[in-house]
Amino acid sequence: MPNSCRFLLVIPILALAPALTLAAEATAPAAAPGTLPAKLPDWAPKPKPHVVEDRFRIEVNLLGASPSTTLRVDETPTLPGTEINAEDDLGLEDFKLLPQVELTLLPGERHLVRLSAFAIHRSADKRIERPISFDNEDYRIGERVDSLLNLTMFGLTYGYRFVVHQRGEISATFGIQIADVEANAVVRSRVVRESESGVAPLPLMGAEGRFDFTPRLAVEARVQYLTVNEDDVDGSILDARLNLTWRVNPYLAVGLGYRTFQIDVDSANEDTPGFVDLSVDGPLLFVRASL
Fold it and tell me: CB-based burial of residue 216 (10 Å sphere; 0-12 exposed, 13-18 middle, 19+ buried)?
């Protein structure tokens, strides 16, 4: 993904800071002429928030995912395999409805802890239309190939809300994602089977924010990112979403948004040469309850 596109995804969060500043100035009481503005004592009650989320929040969402996968698994760094489009060449689904659940704890005014899960599992069988070299196996034209590509991620994210206002907030986040990837290609007629799998922890830095246009309507943005540049491996992971939220009442909200998740890895390592470019994008519907 070009750096300019990644920067565009961060713009909504950066834009929330001046918006909250203006909101603070607009809601601040004007001081009487010739007097200094009064400061509320510590024991004075704070303005009532637009949404109740001071202890626990649960979100159930449905992602209309449109995955796109390009990959190549080489036999050695000097013997490249065939570049494969998994949807076109292997027949994997290019659209799936993915239900997801998030649990967020808010222990105090400025801290958040989020548990999340993301999974997309696809399989297909198709007669291939061109010869394909995958690792150290060759697949012939017309052979029926049973393929499988699964990605499962479990995440734990901590956030510190360094800007907290009645009309919104901005947080810096740090998360750990446990990624489990499984790929498999089988030709039953020749008992040919090639599989790749792996599990790895991935640290992600990020930011997120919210701004209330009205007591019911708000915009939210979230982004997490990781980049790796080692001797033999270059890669990046991007997970971002932007959505509008409508508050039915202080305890319940519904929303519509858009989410993009992307993995780009290019490896010249002798054990795992090749590359993968996976993106999952689509509209997002969700219901969120605060307790």
Answer: middle
* Token pair for 273: 């040469």
Listed by start position, the domains of the chain span 3-20+51-286
Summarised one tens digit per residue, pLDDT across range 21-67 is 555 555 545 444 444 445 556 665 655 555 555 688 999 999 999 99
Q: Extract the runs of DSSP E, i.e. beta strands, from the chain.
A: 56-73, 84-85, 96-105, 111-127, 132-134, 137-139, 144-165, 168-187, 192-212, 217-229, 233-249, 252-267, 274-290
The superfamily in CATH containing domain 3-20+51-286 is OMPT-like (2.40.128.90)
Q: Which two tokens stand for residue 255?
A: 């929303």
Task: Output the six-digit token pair for 144.
Answer: 């029926």
65: phi > 0 → left, psi -120 to 50 → alpha, else beta; which? Answer: beta
* Segment 217-255, tens digit of pLDDT: 999 999 999 998 887 888 999 999 999 999 999 889 999
Give residues with Cβ within 8 angstroms of 181, minimum separation 6: 150, 151, 196, 197, 198, 199
Say how many C-beta atoms besides its own lie within 10 A of residue 34's C-beta: 5
